[in-house]
Amino acid sequence: MENFIAYNPTSLHFGKNVLNNLGTTVALFGKKVLLVYGKGSIKKSGLYEKVMFQLNEVGAKVFEYSGIKSNPIIDDVNAAAEIGRKNNVDVVLAVGGGSVIDSAKIISIALHVKNDAWDFFEYKIKPEKASPLIAVLTLAATGTEMNPYAVVQNPKTGQKPGYGGPLMYPKHSFLDPQNTFSVPKDYTAFGIVDLIAHSLEAYFGKGDATLSDKFVFATIKEALEFGPLLMEDLNNYDLRAKIMYAATAALNGLNSYGRVSGDWGVHGIGHSLSVLYDTPHGASLSIAYPAWLKLQKDRIPERIEKLGFELFNSESVDDTIYKLEYFFKLIGSPTRLSDIGINIETEKELIYENMKINKVNGANQKLTGPDFLTLIDLMDAE
Amino acid sequence: MENFIAYNPTSLHFGKNVLNNLGTTVALFGKKVLLVYGKGSIKKSGLYEKVMFQLNEVGAKVFEYSGIKSNPIIDDVNAAAEIGRKNNVDVVLAVGGGSVIDSAKIISIALHVKNDAWDFFEYKIKPEKASPLIAVLTLAATGTEMNPYAVVQNPKTGQKPGYGGPLMYPKHSFLDPQNTFSVPKDYTAFGIVDLIAHSLEAYFGKGDATLSDKFVFATIKEALEFGPLLMEDLNNYDLRAKIMYAATAALNGLNSYGRVSGDWGVHGIGHSLSVLYDTPHGASLSIAYPAWLKLQKDRIPERIEKLGFELFNSESVDDTIYKLEYFFKLIGSPTRLSDIGINIETEKELIYENMKINKVNGANQKLTGPDFLTLIDLMDAE
Questions:
Q1: ipTM, two decimals
Q2: Could you tell me the domains of chain B?
Q3: Residue to test with chain A: of B22, B147, B196, B211, most A Cβ within 10 A
Q4: What is the pLDDT of residues A28-38, one digit of tens each?
């Protein structure tokens, strides 16, 4: 086992009507609130009103930035930070899914610098300070609600890198599974894929950590057991709750303690698809993971076998990959490029070039140029 | 799933030579340090010297309180708090196992009141403030290094209650598995029993929390898999590390999120044995758990069956209990009162009376007076 520091200061408020404590929690940090959200789905769902009620109750002064895209871009981060700086806000309140919360994390550090926020991603500057961030989560998927990482896209450069640091944990995150009832079927499935992928990135990472491996199996098994039931019953509170908590647990540190690092090669592949085709993150991962496993099956057969035995009582690598792929299909997430309308004949070169630009690689399982080509073919295989 | 707040602010520094950062970490909180430890085993092992070196390096002024007993008593807590108050210490540094750290938690809140510290346990006073607590753990067992609970005994009243609150998390805990090399074989086994028992108390608690159940299985399986190997190889770093981290994970919240509460009935039974006979905590639990499961087997057969299936691939309640008991024996922990020299003929009444005084009960599985008598018999059965 590798040395590690287990530290996660986020308070996660989980359950029915936890938003009743949102106003008083925000007020702990000040009166001037920068409210960040997406393209208005929280207005349709009624969540916006609930949040505003909470903020008004404590006399908060609210400055809004809306329009964060589902693959969030750095321009929105800069624009929101500008509003926050101008109005000298005390606290950032993110209401939405991973893209909104990830953007808000970068906003919370960008508030304290004059630079373009992209400078963080290029390590030109380091954050010295962050405004307190409070998150209200509406989508069970990325785990950003209880970790210090953010992924943001730069449309100019075609990059979608991750960034993180101890200042970037939300102080408080509010997770009411009822707020995920309005997530449509496809995005519900993509969220399930995402939480499985996060667990797998940890599992295929560097370093031997047997208890963390067992937590990985636990988290994925929760998704395998209850994901398909949720797909048939989208307004079931308890099923929404199980998947929502599993998504948090998949990337709050638990799956990684005692390892050098996760792998994250598959996320790199997925990010390339998202940058090029605006493919939803989870959809890109259900295409990339089976291909990656097929590439790795002769390189790390024992590791894949162990996974298959624990998850599926499966005894072979091929059977393990087949069953994971079958699960993705079962919940309705794509597993081939053709499923999302990408024609490999015309697109292969473009995907390959973007994988190079994005420096797609794994921290543990190194990927080479020839691997990129194999992966693209495998993402298109029969 | 029940509503919950997942919050654990402790920084857990885990691994080889993490004590190299002890001095600078203590210095974050001030210069005057109340150092609390046990009966001198840290002097024999050389750990005392290492700690003092770290403290001297940062120019700390150290006030010592030694002599905390392995079932810690309130008198030591009061005496240590008196030294801390008199010298106006900035930070409490606990070096030892669960008893030392539990005592230090109460000391850290007692420093700020003039009362007898027992008043906290009787809810006569509430802590308003705590001095920062830093822990250096030398025994993998109780999980106190990453939770806000303490158990302390009152020899005058024969009680051994628990107490806890958000002020009582250690700020930092340092876990170097090398510091557990000197733990003798029997106490190594008792620690393994303790971590299993903590996981089971969560599992048999109130409320349906499927992912937390899976984390329980993961943690116990880690102990079942590596505990016996460690018993044969006490100086194996990696095995010590696995058991040490499992003991932390067993009681840092993870096994409980989404439940109303754990059960803790078995701990109550164990505490009675410890109060009466100074039985090591883990030893009392390996005697009490099989008896408790036998009492419960017709009351909650499905819950026990599910556990047995996950842990042992076992299909019956009796087989599950047999296998757990067999495991405790295998690692050398007692499973009957007679194993620790208690003669039920002469002691039955005394144990029964103490169980009444200590109000032994479970939060989920209620225990009655007749249950006490059955349990005592079962702890003595062939």
A1: 0.96
A2: 11-180 (3.40.50.1970), 185-378 (1.20.1090.10)
A3: B211
A4: 999 999 999 99
